[in-house]
Amino acid sequence: MESYFQTKGRIFDIQRYSIHDGDGIRTIVFLKGCVLRCRWCCNPESQEYGIQTMMVQGQPKIIGKDITVAEVMEVVEKDRPYYYRSGGGMTLSGGESLCQPEFARDLLRASKESGINTALESMGCADYTVIESILPYLDQYLLDIKHMNPAKHKEFTGKSNELMLENAAKIASSGQTRLSIRIPVIPTFNDTEAEIEAIAVFARKLGAVERIHLLPYHRLGQDKYEGLGREYLMKDILPPGQEQMHKLLQVAESVSGLHCQIGG
Amino acid sequence: MGLYQYEIKDYPKTERITRLIENLYAKMPEIESARAKLITESYKATEDQPIIIRRARAFEHILKNLPIIIRKDELIVGSTTIAPRGCQTYPEFSYEWLEAEFDTVATRSADPFYISEETKKELKEADSYWKGKTTSELASSYMEPETILAIEHNMFTPGNYFYNGVGHVTVQYDKVLAIGFEGIREEARAELDRCDPGDGNYITKSRFLQAVMISCDAAITYAKRYALLAEQEAASCTDAIRKKELLQIAQNCERVPAKGAQTFYEACQSFWFVQQLLQIESSGHSISPGRFDQYMYPYYERDRKKGVLSGEFAQELIDCIWVKLNDLNKCRDCVSAEGFAGYSLFQNLIAGGQNKDGVDVTNDLSFMTIQASMHVQLPQPSFSVRVWNGTPHEFLIKAAELTRTGVGLPAYYNDEVIIPSLLNRGLSLEDAREYNIIGCVEPQKAGKTEGWHDAAFFNMCRPLELVFSQGNDKGVQVGPFTKPVEEMKEFEEFYDAYKTQMNYMIKLLVNADNAIDVAHADRCPLPFLSCMVDDCMKRGLSVQEGGAVYNFTGPQGFGIANMTDSLYAIKKLVFEEHKATLKEFKEVLALNYGRGLTDEMLQDMTTQIARKLQESGQNLGEKEVAAIMKATAEAAVMPEVREKGDRLLKMIAEVPKYGNDIAEVDSFARDVAYTYTRPLQEYRNPRGGSYQAGLYPVSANVPLGAQTGATPDGRLAGTPIADGVSPSAGKDVNGPTAAANSVARLDHFIASNGTLFNQKFHPSALSGRAGLEKFVALIRSYFDQKGSHMQFNVVSRETLLDAQKNPEKYRHLVVRVAGYSALFTTLSRSLQDDIINRTQQGLDN
Q1: Looking at this predicted complex, what is its ipTM?
Q2: Which of its termini does chain B have fewer beta carbons within 10 Å around, N or C?
């Protein structure tokens, strides 16, 4: 076995039969650790790199596991018949996978070289050399863009957005991977037409974008905050309604001229 | 590339169909007495005649006199009862159970039927003739005492054919459509002409052929009664449109099924009479229309080419048939009703697949049959589709759209497994390629097979209970006296004891089925059905006597998941990790893990203790027995008992389970399934055919689970047994692909009487075209790995709303929440609301 199969990293989950993140039926590997602290994050257990204990339905659960690429691939391989029939494959998610650059790269490489399609869900929040190192092994980049305003971005996620936007342009012009933009639609943060429009304009200018996904905010991660002993800051925020989502979809479509959809 | 060009058109549902359904479901189904009266009259008048002639004469007498009705708005006519969805009774098979349930049948929980006092009286009068004359009574007298004992102890349940007709057949609808019953009668006549009174088989053959001719005439007479009725109703009808419809009905019934059908409409009517009359001749269910899209196609194609049939009208006629299939009904005894819950007749109708040459024959009608199931949203027909590597993609997408409606249809079947499995059972390649499904999941070749597909439920958990008790059940020795578990040193010893108990019960099961089989041949041969199955006429034998080309008996085993998890837990915890002993398991299982005894367990234990005390010379009154019962119940839930139970349950929970894509466990499951499928296939039935196993429970896993004690997989006494070959509920935690991979590791080829794999989905999994694509890919991938059957339960928004209101009914409902699955009812109200709203939007995380 190639040496990169021995690379170790830290994950907090592997989810098989994922059908809303990338093409076909996919296996998502969730890498632990994130650079951002988005208030609405539905996977708060992904944020810390350190191994944590979270209460899940009344039972303590250890979150985080160190694992080799080979061990991950053993699980990913199990659904090969489904990837073959559906055009699916492996997706890396997080956290921000790029926080573990070698591990992320070697997972993608192992998958790609075994003939399994690869996708990455990421904010692109890393030094571009890191992104460059993974692009040869990446079929599809699902890039999160949350807001065009640096100050507001910083207020809600803990970090400003310049680096990410810069990287988005570089990824688009690399021509090495298919690119989709994913916008989490978060009431009180970015759910106005003007805010979505600004992102859509940016996406259009990137050139190589295949499609835009509008992902409506949901509270389904709420119990996890409690499980981690943290306060959920978005308690009183209701998910956007169907009507509003459709309106935003129209805005995104008309401004970007791209294929836009609600959901993954 | 398939044989036919087809167009995919979603024809609309007409208002007539809505009205027909409303009328059909306007009130509770009712039991009628007409058939019971008529058959009794006929039998009384024919006591001096051979049984096959008596059967034909009875059929004739019934069809000449059974009250007939044309329901409002019907285009296809023929009703077995005056009341919609009513049922007749069949005292020649059994009747005692119904008399015993006269006062409760209308109020029981599963499949209630209204019965009037007048009907009760008439049935009682008719039934009085049948004492000692039924198939069930004869079957009992053919059985060995140990077989009867095993049945009494719920080791297996052959009740279906013990109490009822066999059904479970697909006849040559194509033949009736082509030449009519006049043509078939002529074949019988010609065959009779070739016989010589000096032939060795002349006596039986000639009488059989005469019975066929009487039956054909009876069917024709019945249809002509409808022609006359339609004409009469037309004469008094003031609505010009309906008048025209009635005149057309009259014309149709005048022609078919006497003669070959000339139009698609006539073919529909002819089909219906066959379907209906088979279910008047006998009470057997699962009379399966089979490949409707194939044998109806020539008539459809001809009319379409001629330009005399619109797509819309063709669709409406198909929809009318779908509604009619729900007009037929059957009243079962209260226990069986739970096992087959939902008034189901399992009339399996299948679309798509290959022809005898291996060419795909999906056509317009294949799509229109799916559309019909979407239109009517009713349980009948049990709609199925055939899937193979050459199945058109759009056909599966259309089928997936039907799945998405949440109606639980269609079931998907894999040609790539079923065809080779039938070849292995001796079918020719051409016949195997033309298979269709009977009832739930049982494959066979139409018009050539007497498959006895639903021959019994075999509960694989019961023999394991006998291992712990050395063959003793409720104080009675019902199985072999195997070694005490306390003395077993190796897992193999334990497993061998299980196999010994299994083999013994399988043998008794065969004895039971064969006894019932012979009883049907002796007392209820069916000449009408037999004239549409090869080679009955050439052989001069009814299907019950071995007239069919292919003969099988297919009793179904269930509990694979429970037995895999149980035996694997014992292997690991007792023999590999030495964390527990068999003695400990034995004690804890007997006390239901300290979770309290079921009423049945408590009763048994009290009886046994009382018996022992009495044997030792003590005198026990009612009061003393009650005291024993109270003490036993209390002892069973004492803290130390519960602690012991908890200790084992905790360890068991950590042992890997079937359904999670763990190769070692799944390979073990394959072997466990062999403990049933392999010994069974060595046995022969009285019709000269072999036994073949099915692995599916219909819905009997629930009532039969109620008769089963605690099992070493952590399952508590009285709770349901796992469904089909599916993992135990809640034990598969790695999602649908992992569960499917596990199930695919079983040997589906040897279980040639069918396997059943159920999956549950959230509608979002099928949302949009992309959702349908991924859903179809999932089926394809399971089938690539040689799974045989798959069906889906899509949880709708309505279900989730109902679950919020009635959480106690939905304790097992699993939904997907941000990256994990959770029991819906344990979530907070606001989370539940979010999930419901997302269901509506067709979104998932």
Answers
A1: 0.91
A2: N
